[in-house]
Amino acid sequence: MFENIFNNVSKKHPLVHCVTNYVTVNDCANILLAAGAAPIMADDIGEVKEITAICNALALNIGTLNERTINSMFAAGKEAVRLGHPVILDPVGAGASALRTDTALRLMNEINFTVIRGNISEIKTISKGTGTTRGVDADVSDAVTEANLNEAVRFVKEISRQKNAVIAVTGAIDIVADSDKAYIIRNGHPMMSRITGTGCMLNALIAAYCGANTENTLDAVAASVAAMGICGEIAYEKTVGENGGTGTFRIRLIDAMSNLDAETFWKRIKVEIR
Amino acid sequence: MFENIFNNVSKKHPLVHCVTNYVTVNDCANILLAAGAAPIMADDIGEVKEITAICNALALNIGTLNERTINSMFAAGKEAVRLGHPVILDPVGAGASALRTDTALRLMNEINFTVIRGNISEIKTISKGTGTTRGVDADVSDAVTEANLNEAVRFVKEISRQKNAVIAVTGAIDIVADSDKAYIIRNGHPMMSRITGTGCMLNALIAAYCGANTENTLDAVAASVAAMGICGEIAYEKTVGENGGTGTFRIRLIDAMSNLDAETFWKRIKVEIR
Amino acid sequence: MFENIFNNVSKKHPLVHCVTNYVTVNDCANILLAAGAAPIMADDIGEVKEITAICNALALNIGTLNERTINSMFAAGKEAVRLGHPVILDPVGAGASALRTDTALRLMNEINFTVIRGNISEIKTISKGTGTTRGVDADVSDAVTEANLNEAVRFVKEISRQKNAVIAVTGAIDIVADSDKAYIIRNGHPMMSRITGTGCMLNALIAAYCGANTENTLDAVAASVAAMGICGEIAYEKTVGENGGTGTFRIRLIDAMSNLDAETFWKRIKVEIR
Description:
homotrimer; UDP-N-acetylmuramoyl-L-alanine:D-glutamate ligase; 51% helix
């Protein structure tokens, strides 16, 4: 299903412009390189349009937003849309402060994002214009479970219709949907939430997959979410085998991405359509 | 002695707001997650008060201070004090430039810190208003040794009285004191000074321990200093076992924190009261 | 040839002031510590002159330049020149945007750099005032190969003459030259380009080597380039031995630097003079 999509990333070697937070920016650069893509981080208003123009996709992440970089996000985002590049939004911590919620809403008003990725609380916040989070983590009461999955899928499709964007809600169960079709992805491991940056890395990776597969955004997003989850599983297995902890896990996650081949991807992917 | 204090961190899962430097910010986030706490990094003046309000503790670190983030530190710090949250200061490089020394002094004048943590040169600088450092490292002539330990303890207690804060002076021998009581902690390993960020990570960890143990700050700080030292020892042992170097050590340090249990903590802690 | 140069770094323990990008800043700090040097990162205009004054060398890197830090680079650079400190420029992504190209050119006009290090596309850009890159990577058509090596050496010597600086062009084959003499260095491994930051780390390392060997800049630069390449080879061997990937490689690179001794350096170095 996703094999060409997976192969296109290393084949096309997409260049991804990231305007992202300074907490996990190194991890974002390294996961892109591991996946066969290439990063460029640039956030000055004086160059973001030019930088985006030479790239294949743009990833915006409001994890450590400030007035200066918010302006750059608008400029880069509008230019990427004008050029027809995929533009991905990670509304990190939307709901945790008015600045984050408002910035995410304003970005979505002015930029037609190709993909919006967040945890369930962040996506609820941007749909309602208000919400609760636990800092940058999802509120427990919001969690997507097998029990509320159909309801969650309907909700994600509806947000996709509203925002005219593919929506990726990631958590224990991942949902990737447009207004018609949802992929449910059950890859991943809970240890992914015990390191910082798995969401940010995924956001960058989504941009790479979309940049290498511009004709098929929904599948590209689903494949990248699955790839990240599969690497989380492999990293966990390696970590346990080495009696490691979360430090080791983070390294093995990037290892797994750099070693991931189509066969492993295909063998491990757990995806369902609803 | 510190067992409940240790257990409270993973039980209460405190959320720690960090306004910190961009050099070691990823390590700070990962050490917090490894310890069972959760990080949120936010430094824009437009959101720091709100972000601090949803957190359990605030860690300020002037490692790469600038005009914009200094203002945010004041705003966040005052709000945290108003809300009764623990507020921790790491005056990185105080003594290395007038900006650092003055900012540390101004912060201490306007914010009643719960804890101030630094190397001995930084703490001397903030006590006298002037000092010498070797960049962000302690001046060798300042070092706390067994020979001058009693004198150092008296000095640290006196600073604590002056600043109305628990003081943590870390180095080969660590001293954690209020005006009455000092813990001398002899955990740790010299390799901790061969990677960047052990001080910054400890500052974030102190905030987590204080956020989970608001009724007993002195013990919380001492326990967090011991925990960091113990993880340094474990990391060193693993690194030697693997013929690794400082890169491996950094990863094993975070591993050790994520795997640290009360039994190991209790067995390894080397603490004395003076 | 370079043995004293190598030994001087750990013996003199040079303090390196870095005004650098937030993507790889942690790696830069850790590689300096691994090599026996010490880092201080400071980029506020209010302190950069003072910070540079207490250091042995200054490394400027425009990887995530912005208006604020550009001003700080000029202030720090001029002060370092005034004090006779080695000043190194890494014109990251020169050619990728007008801001990067112009900033690199303006910095070179106003500051007499001791060393300029870049990939071949960046160095071509700063020599001609215009150029093409693939983001922050060299354009494939520019690559230095055995076939065009003599021509490349002549070009690098000419740039050195023009800029009155030692020039280090790094890639599959590295060239380090002043106007008279070029070292060709064939250490390193292609995996170094599959992680972010090897160029930035090298830039910081060059500063450390120059700071510890002020009387012999050309040899200091060549030795640091060789040391980085050797560590890349060792890291690759370890990574393969562990079935690791690019995450592991990055850690083993810092390990290798922290464990590198003169004997290994001497045994592995592949250097030629042209």
